[in-house]
Amino acid sequence: MKNIHIQIEVSKELYTKNPDSSELGRKIISSSIELINEIGFESFTFKKLGATINSPESSIYRYFTNKQALLIYLTSWYWTWTEYRLVFAMTIVASIDERLNKCIEILTQPVEVDDDISYVNEILLSEIIFAESLKAYHTKNVDEQNKIGCFEAYKSVVQRVSDIVLEIQPDFEYPHMLISTIIEGAHQQKYFSEHLPALTDKVKDKKAINSFYTELTWNFLKSTTRN
Amino acid sequence: MKNIHIQIEVSKELYTKNPDSSELGRKIISSSIELINEIGFESFTFKKLGATINSPESSIYRYFTNKQALLIYLTSWYWTWTEYRLVFAMTIVASIDERLNKCIEILTQPVEVDDDISYVNEILLSEIIFAESLKAYHTKNVDEQNKIGCFEAYKSVVQRVSDIVLEIQPDFEYPHMLISTIIEGAHQQKYFSEHLPALTDKVKDKKAINSFYTELTWNFLKSTTRN
DNA sequence: GCAGAAATGATAGTAATACTATTATCTTTG
DNA sequence: CAAAGATAATAGTATTACTATCATTTCTGC
After folding, report:
1. pLDDT in tens, A109-127
2. Is the pLDDT of residue A1 over 90?
3. Domain count, chain B
4. Which residues of B, range 168-207, sit inside 8 Å of A by Cβ?
């Protein structure tokens, strides 16, 4: 995957004007990723973003109807890109068990190297996803947004990994529940370790959360196989 | 537990004036529970709440500094009350295994009967907890709020159930991770089943989420015991 | 039953947010 | 080089999230 520039296509429903189509649009994306990381999504406003990129907020509104739409765009970009990462990882891993392990690793650990040469900083973006992505769909407008396809990239990733689970164990009843529990759980455990450590456990190394969910998964799958 | 009126004491840090100490305070709590359920926490404002109880919003501000403080109060009330439920349940269940099962049941299923005669509707409150409680601690002020003890009730519940896990298996490394994964996971799976069903699995009955997390837990604990 | 205190009501006002609208200027591109 | 399209500059509105003031009601001890 190194040095290969992948063009991530984000569904047209997620923006008013495609930010990938102009200099200003790309600046909006790259600067918003930095700014959200710095001050958090709640404090983030289009006015502040405009100030950092020296453009009026009205120009930003031409790309996104509001800041939540921008967050949905970012999460969608992330999940589309993560699906590429998954697909690529599957091509170089032979055994089905190792494939699932690799998937869990990708889903539970923040990105640490920015391979891609583009205006999207994938390390910071993955931080945003871990810390704030639940704010993209925990809103009063979920149902409408879901209807127009705002969350298809995320669903697609869950489906893909669920399929691998089913390949390992075709009669498993809760593949999607398991995978979404792992993804959301890993995000939350990281948040807890940083802000509410009493809700998680002291972790020796960075891989602890990954280990936890990997073990959890295999114990679950192995046991139901035996029955 | 039937017909026993339990006085839930909420920590003084969570309010400006104790809502339990006056008629208006109790009206604020009971009406906010109904209103948040109706319109969701995001659309909920003190102005709207004032309109429904025929009091000016400034009077509500005498009890809570803002709507987020009120949500923290509600979640704290819920977890304090849930700890009573857990303690009570433990007294009538003999075996340690059955105790853990009962805990998981209490943590993963919304409340269905309102036993208590009080101004708090526990059924609606549990709906709020499942749907919105993560908004209580997923904010820019978590750290300060955590410092003054806003989340002690939740932590206490996680600790209590973690202790049961450790009683079953003293060398288990991730009891808190497991319990908070179960609690938050159950909340999210319910949300997904209502709004983003592609992220979960078709569930036959109301107990499906409970069954999933119960199985998950026992498979995890049984297997590490064997090692 | 009444003075004083405390709580509540009524009303007004402010700063920030989340937009929308308009017009001017710059920048492409045919 | 002219027309189209994009962006900048500026202004304005509605709502939210508060704070402040003062009048009125209610409570409480004597």
Report:
1. 999 998 777 899 999 999 9
2. no
3. 1
4. 173-178, 180-181, 184-185, 188-189, 191-192, 195-196, 198-201
Q: Count other Cβ atoms within 10 Å, centred on residue A220.
A: 23
Has residue A212 been placed in a domain?
yes
* Alpha carbons B31 and A188: distance in angstroms, whole number: 31
Question: Tell me: the pLDDT tens digits for B67-99?
Answer: 999 999 999 999 999 999 999 999 998 899 999
Round and report the angstrom distance from CA (B45) to C1' (D15): 11
At B22, list the tokens.
Answer: 């006056």
As a whole number, mean pLDDT of residues A215-222 equals 94
Rounded average pLDDT over B20-42: 97
Does the residue A81 lie in any domain? yes
| B2 domain residue, yes or no | no
Which residue on chain A is closest to B177 by alpha carbon? A200
pLDDT of B153 > 60? The answer is yes
Domain that residue B51 falls in: 12-226
